[in-house]
Protein: CHK kinase-like domain-containing protein
Amino acid sequence: MSTVEQQVAYIKKYVIYDILKYFGKDYTVVSHTVDFTNGIGFMSTLYTVELKLQLDERIENKTLVVKFMKGSPEFRETSKSYTQFANEVYAYAEVLPAYEHLLRSSHLNTDIVSEFVPHPFLAKFGVFDNLSTDRESVLALKHLKNDGYILEPSLSLRRDQLEAMSALIGKYHALGYATRILQPLVHERLKSGVVPLHFTTAEGQPTGVYDVLHGVAFARFFEYYERQKSIEQDSGLDAALKRLKEKYLDKPTELLERIRTQSCDESQPDSYFSTILHGDYNRNNVLFHYGPDGKVDNIKMLDFQELRFSTIALDLSFFMYMNIPFEERSTIFPQLLKYYHKHMYELLELVLQRNQGENSLTKDQVDQYLSNYSFERFQSHFKRYAFYGVMICMHFLPWLLAEKEECDKLAHLFETNMHGPEFYQLSIDIAGDAANQEIFNIVRHAYEQGYMDEI
Structure:
């Protein structure tokens, strides 16, 4: 593993000059500063790099954020960091450029893709001389603080924020679908380049991070439900939860893995709703920009570490259950599904129609492809796999509802001894019954929508 000192030295000696190539051979570095901002990244170390560049007589200031994988080799293995950071680099280095090429070949503006994320200057994964003998991840992005972008500190989001996130992820998914249809060889190459990020742990291997997190989440939820079910008195919900408990209490990651793999299995009639995902699409992984009226007018995605190839229901169900205000869920949830689908469908339609004509798609083919992605078919597919988002909320929501001191302690225990009794007990207790009740409300909503029918 690389130390902070090695990472800072690597930035100063190599990263800065790799980035300088992007601006052109006539630029020179006048000065630079590297600020270590530990604690911002949950599994990463982040640095803010200030560059003063000179071109002829003109001085330009550039601000970047440089991200490294952190932790010991043991932590990186158990937390699946090697897979996660390899896939994140892959998103910037291969997936997004392929989508730009698709738009370019379709005679469409590639800004659609470049607007998805802060501009990437450098994205690489592997063993690098002068850094360490271990596999490392180096990602350098434009820092958007000077452009007015901010992380949203609120636990739940307003409608304009939710709609902005829905539109962005819808367009991102649409380009994955369009690549599958128009450039099947490129699609297969991109798909095969994603390192599978399994929820389950292979037999004989140490207990994995997802086993730990979801095991304690299920134990916590069902302990709370046993205390509450006499009050709730819903026989249908009780039967659904009994079925869930009997099948998966001791192995919740098997349900997550089933959703991940079954949804994209080509034997499934709706497997075409699978594509390359963001994987962790939540408010803490996007940057918002606001207009003069205080409403969102732009948005960027960050942190592709949980990137997977699977159903879009993974991205969408987690985003919606985690970010819609609790008291507005029943109203906003169906509206956001339609809003997401509208933006996904419109971009897919535009790209396909640009490829309609001689030596390309016929009108009938375009119509058939678009019918596959109708709202009705999308909604039916989403219903089959939307319980995924509920399961992620079960373990993650208590962290977000906790006091900062508790959360910091839990994060420290996660990094230093996630298998120990102290981490387990704090995971059970953190944020108390207030978090338990919110999780129960999410589960009940999912049951009422039919999202537990196929469990």
Remarks:
- The chain has a mean pLDDT of 95.
